Amino acid sequence: MHEAFKNTLPPGQKIDLSNCDREPIHIPGHIQAHGLLLAVDRSSHVILQASNNALEYLGVPSDLLLGKSLATLLGTEQLSLLQSVLRSEPQEDNPVYLFTALVLGSGPFHVIGHLHDGLLILEFEPKLPDTPRHPDFYELLKRSLARFQAAQTVREFCQMVTEEIRRVSGYDRVMVYQFQEDWSGHVIAEDMAQDMGLESYLDLHYPASDIPSQARALFLLNTVRMLADAQYKPAWMIPERNPITAKPLDMSYTFLRGASQMYTEYLINMGVRASLTLAISQGDKLWGLVACHHYSPRKIPYDVRTACEVLARVISLQVADKVRNEESNYRVRMDEVHQCLLQAVGRDGHLGTALIECQPGVREFVECEGAAVLAEGECHLLGQTPSEAQVRALAAWLSRTHEGELFVTDRLPELYPPAADLKAIACGVMALPISRAQAEYILWFRPEVIQTVKWAGDPRKPVEVGPLGDRLTPRKSFALWKETVEGHSLPWRKGEQEGTLRLRTALTDALYHRSEALSRLNQELSRSNQELDAFAYVASHDLKEPLRGIYNYATFLSEDYAEKLDPEGLQKLSTLLRLTRRMQSLIDSLLHFSRLGKAPLRLEQFPAGEAVQEALEQVELRLKETGTSVEIPRPLPTIKADRVGITEVFTNLLSNALKYNDKPVRTVEVGYLDAGEPGFPSQAQGAPFCFYVKDNGIGIPERFQEEIFRIFKRLHARTEFGGGTGAGLTIVKKVVERHGGTIWLSSREGEGTTFFFTLSRT
User: Fold this and answer.
1) What's the CATH code, domain 494-599?
2) C or N: which end of the chain has fewer Cβ atoms within 10 Å?
3) 450-479 per-position pLDDT tens digit
4) Where are the domains of the chain?
5) What is the helix (H) or strand (E) element at residue 472, kind and residue range?
6) Per-residue pLDDT tens over the stretch 175-222
7) Could you please report the per-residue DSSP string of 627-661?
């Protein structure tokens, strides 16, 4: 190992992979032997350093060049040309071709120069005798660009790249090597000589240590890197440290820079003798490499290397364009679904229903096998998903543990152990919160995808201890090594995540506008209800007096003149009395209903069982007449509510249960369910308890189940099942809603009915 690297490690520190990442490959202290390098003072043009192979190329020992002026080496005419080019070109950290000329009668040489650290660094590469003329490369680039533009996908484009670069450069094998998030590499395209019996590297993966971080950084500075012979003899710099900077010469931007010993050993272990590498970047990030391998020494002419450098820049632009196009096409599809969803939300009053029924809808928004929408107390499932209970439990966990705008994972069981048995349908989850407080989410699910990743050698052994003692060397085995990756779904694309966040913003806006509209409507309804309540109160109060007069006069007639009336007259008088009594009952119910909306709730803590007992006392006579048994499986919880109102709720529900029953054995059950208890209804989400009154009576046909809560609505003739005004369930609904609760029922005709209700203010 070169002295420069040894000195970077503290004494006694063991060399490991992190040390390899710190290897100073930009200051190797030597160059490759197929050229000559000089470091010159940029002001005086005095030669300060030279590679030790000047005798081979110029016939002059390198140490004799030190301290001499460039004019001695190039002549005044070439020096003037050099100065002119350097003045006109942006040469700081940017190597530029200066000229091709004889030097001390030797050559000709291609001369490339750049400025760095106050130095003029000159590289001299012998001009190869069979270098093609420039126009040939213009035609080559024109053809390559035409092919590149026809590619539709990134992989199709990269395959074209390998074919064109191999045709231009003549290397035995050309690959496109794409970096993954962890900086491991994946060969996504390959072209190679078919007559050499080479084994394909296509789809192989390479560990991140194969191209360490400092090497990746250099590729961003110098996009083309050629190694003419992995077994070259280094040409060391004389002196080792620059006299002006007192540091080893920084060769980050040079073409002749010596290769890392780790890299040359790596290539030799692969059986490769020469390489050419072109960087593919997106902005300031390295996307991948075009890696060219040759199985014998290969030195390509400067002109060809220049063409490859131009191609590398074109490739970078084209890759970025193809990636953008793929993401754009996907985003267009997402936007179409996006608009459909927003229109559906605008039309429909229920968010969950709108998102589910829209076509294309939530499931089509991203690539997934299933989706779920938890909204407004309801859970809607689409495609392959966990059960409703499992989805609700996952949403509850998310609301407790994750506060970000979007939850994304491709390995849910690692984060949420209860999902260990759900890998086949929900290994990957993307969850968009609608209301974290209410555990309302849109969730997308992806199944586990068991992948076999093919590595070029065991990735767990990227380096080995070499023969020089405590020093790591590149692995020698590149035999196919397969790794089975389990517990992961396909990853969620960046575009999918961005599109989902845009959907969240749009849904928030849509819900806000709908909320404003509902708020205005509620204000209007509240005002109308107040006016209706006032009208009902006044009307019922004012109607009672004349109705009482009619009833009294009809009673007087019956008592004083009954003997003077014939049977028909007595029948009409009896009907008059019956109708006035019914009218009186209706007015009393209307008056009571109107007062419900005006009187404030008197909230107090009391056991709900006390309200049930009071209700049972009020229907006690009816219980005895019908022989109905009432069961209360367990004590009811303590609630905070209006005692009179809750007693009335139980009284009306018990009265209905007793009234609408024609079974020989009649039963009623009054009970409750705790939140989180098995069987807890989805309609009760958010409430601590759900009460129920269950009977085995006549049941209610499904077509009438929404109508029974309308005031004065009866499903039977007035003479059937004991009559009644039809206001009881309307009063029950109003009391429950004033407590912030909900009431609903489950019934089968002929099998009985169960009324459920919640009291959110408890």
Assistant:
1) 1.10.287
2) N
3) 655 454 555 555 444 454 444 444 444 444
4) 30-126, 494-599, 600-757
5) strand 472-474
6) 998 888 888 888 899 999 999 988 888 888 888 878 888 888 888 888
7) T-EEE--SPPPEEEEEHHHHHHHHHHHHHHHHHS-
